[in-house]
Each structure stands twice: as structure tokens, then as C-alpha cells.
Amino acid sequence: MFHGNSAQFSGSMDLTLSVVVIQTSSSTRLIAIPKFTSQLRQLWNLWHPYRFYATLHRFIWFLRVRNSYNIHHLATDGKTAGSCYILSVLSIMEAKYPIREPRSSFAHSRESQSKPKSKETVRKVAFYFTAALVFIRSSQIHELITYRFNFNSYLLFVLGVPAILGLFISKNAARPFRFPQAYLWLGFSLWIVLIVPFSIWKAGSLQIIEDYWRTDVILFLLLGGLTTTWKEFERLLLVLALSCVVNLVIIKVYGQLDWQDRMSLPFGALANSNDYAAHLLMLLPSLLWVALVAKSPKIRIAILGIFGYGLFAVLSSASRGALIAVSVGIIYFLFSASKKQRLWASGLIALMLFAVFSLVSQQVMQRMLSFSKDSSSASEEALESSKIRGQLLEDAVQAALRNPVFGLGPGNFSTFEGKTKPGMYEPAHNSYATVASECGFPGFFLFIGGVGASFLTFQRIKRKVQCDVRAKDLVQAAVCMQLMMVMFCVAVGFLNFAFSSHFPTMVGMSIAMAYATEDWQPAPPTARAEQETQERR
Description:
Elements: E1 2-10, E2 16-23, E3 28-34, H1 49-66, H2 72-76, H3 82-96, H4 110-114, H5 117-139, H6 141-149, H7 155-169, H8 180-194, H9 202-215, H10 218-226, H11 230-254, E4 256-257, E5 263-264, H12 273-293, H13 297-315, H14 320-336, H15 339-359, H16 362-368, H17 380-402, H18 413-420, H19 431-465, H20 472-491, H21 502-516, H22 527-536
Antiparallel strand pairs: 1-2, 2-3, 4-5
Helix pairs in contact: 5-7, 5-10, 5-11, 8-19, 10-21, 11-12, 11-13, 11-21, 12-13, 12-14, 12-20, 13-15, 14-15, 14-20, 17-19, 19-20, 19-21
């Protein structure tokens, strides 16, 4: 039963409160209700004291945290008799329901807070299995074990099966589909299955699809479905950075120079010089992010040194596609960086490139710069390779135009090329032309759409917080993820990575970052931070 308003007062925030007497069968409570808040006016229709306290508790948090205003001031500044009643009610409130200050970082998420503890525990365990799976997949540890000890460790299945089970048990399998890239990539993955009956060599297509679905497609679902907080996304970036370091150690220990003085590996799917260079270009931006956010100058210098060695390893492959990708990446980073970062980054990049080009052999330099036969110092082998690749690209485009809907079937361009030109069993050496010729234009548009939507997700996150200096780590992460996509997508324009794990990983990372930053709340502003934000705007 309600007994009208017992008092009203106005504080220094032009806030009007009403003290209401609520009488129930067991007790009588005095409650202060803000008149201006439409959401809290529903309190008039409630009766249980606990629900009043819980709602008022949220209102107190709103005033104290969001407006940096102590609720007690409302009572002490009041000029009516209602002040004492409100002060007593608020004292009871804060005693029973202490106000907790919100975390100043973006390490929380609605999903992780609302889920039952059991499902949340399953999700966290599955997330760590996913992080381990990404590490093994990116670091080539499983292939190194097979090469060194001559047995299959099945690490991908040992880590992948618990991660997949955790994804479905925690009911997170549908989470990635809030974003268009998830639909586009799943559509591409299903499309390559549907076109198998129209393939020119069904057995070959089935083998490609089996491997792709078994070890690669699931990555975007795991990353996008199990990552909920910024801390978890940071761990994924650290995992990619660590896998980059492991790759560099493998290259240092097991790398071999061929007759052209090009660095290559004696084992694995990335044994080819061009392939491992593109793989490193995808991982190096994560290492760069670790250097950018490092608090200690010594750690930052050490990581930048490792990053410089990574550039040396990339260019030691003598891959002209990798050289173009690095050049495009440098231009993109300089345009994306702030004025202050652009100054020191220009000097640092110039120093690194000078050191790298000084260390690579003359033969490697000659091959990398062999873009035209007009040059007297051009490598004959490199020019012949360019001629063959140009012809393969032309044939791939023609095959796509002749089979615009279903294509030749996944993995079948080399078979088609060998039949039309005896002895020429070569892939297209262009991931995008490969998709168009083997999967038709529907598959091509789904593929390009998934990659483009992932890039735009990183761009949207960066624009959302780039004017807030308190989100420095987040902005740098978004820039590094875009740098990863730019360099890798340029590099695979000269390679065959259409059905590799790299693209699902990038799609999954974009969804993971979108969820990790969805509920981001900045720390309370300081005077210096506010000034820097205004200057940046």
C-alpha cells in the first residue's frame, strides 16, 4: 500500500527525488525514487522491498560512477526534512548491497556475466583448447614432430575435439553469426561441398574438402564463439606472436639455402620459400602489437629486434610477392598511424630495411628486384617464373568465365591445366583466381565478401575508439590486425592459399575482437587524457 510523497527536495544536480512509504504485510520501507527516470518509475507497480533496493542500488551506481557524483551529497545538500529519510535509506542500501566500482578496462562481457557458472567454465576450458590449437596450427609444431620423430602426434585432433565439444556444450556455436563474415564464410564452406557433383575430378575435390572441413573451417567458429573478453583476445594475440617466434626458431635451426640462395624448409606444408614468407607476414603484425604495448623499453627493443629478424626471414625467401606485400604493409601502417607514431615508425622502418637488405645476399636481391626483362641484372629464372605465372593467371580467368557457376571443382585447376596443356600440371599461383576458377563466381563472391567483412569489422572497431587515448592498446590491436590482413592478402595474390587455415583464422579473429570490445568501458578520464583526446579530435 502506498502513502503518497512524504517529502521532495532538489540537490545540486537539479535532481528531484520522492520519498515513498511502502507498507507490506511484514515490514514498512522508506524508498527514494527519482522522478525523472522513466525506467525506474516502474517501481510504483512493484511491492517487494528487495526489488526496490536492487533497482535503487543500480541508480546509485549510475550516479556515483557515470556522473562521478557521490549519492550522499544529494542527501546532505537537501533543504527539506526528506533528506534525513533518504540518507537513512541509502545507508541501509550501501550496507546490504555495497557498490562495486566497475572495471576500468574492457575485460568484461554481457555473455560471460549472464551465463551459468557451469557453462561459463566449459567455455573457458574450451577457449584455452582453442588457443592451444591455434598455436599448434600456426607454429607448425605438429609438422616438426612428424619430421623429427617420424610419427603423427595427432595434436590437432587432441586439441580440436575438446574445443569443439566445449563450443557446443556451452551453447556458443551460434555466437559468430551475429556478424556477416560468419554467414559468408560458412556459405563459402558449404558451397564447395555442393559443387562436388559438378567437379571434373570428384575424388580430388573430396580430398581437398575433407581436409578443409576437418582442420580449417572450425577455426572461425571456435575463435568467434569462445572469445568473450578483451583479456582473452589479448591472449590470442600473444599466442600468434609466440607462434611467430617459434616459426623463426624453426627457420633458424632447420632452414636451408637452395641453389639460388633462397631460404626454405625441408618439411611441412610451408616448405616452399614463397609459402613460409606469406605465413610469416600473417604472424608478424601480432609480434609488432606486443612491441607497441610493451611497458618496458628493454622488452620493446628486444621484440622489435625479433620483428626485424622476421622481416629478414621473409625477404631471405627472395619472394617478389612478399616484397610487394611488405611494401604495401609499410604504406598502410604509416597512413594508419598517428603523427607521432608516423615519425618514429618511418625512421625505425628505414633502419630495419637498411639492415635487412644489407644482410641478404646479392643473388637474393637480384631475384627480388627482377620485375622486368629490360633490366640487365634481372634474374632469368625469375623472369621465366613471371611469364609462366602470367599464363597460368590468364588460363584461370578463362576457366572461371567458361564455368561461371560451379567452376572446375576444388583443387582441380592443375588437373584442367595439365589436360589442356600436356605436362603443365601447375596451380594458378593466385588464391583469388583459384577460387574463381574452381568454385565459380558464387564461391568467389562469398570468399571475397568474408574477407572484406572481416577487414571492415577491424576498421569499425578502430574508428569507434581511435579518439580515446585510453583505448590505445585496442586501437593498435585493430591496426595490427588490419596490417595482418593487408600483407597476407597481397602476398597470396601470388600463391595458392585458398583452402588453407589462414583465412578462417582471420575471420574468427575479427569476430573475436568484435565481441571482446563490444562492452568496452573506458577508465575514468584524467585531465591529461581528456586533453590528449581533445587534441586528437
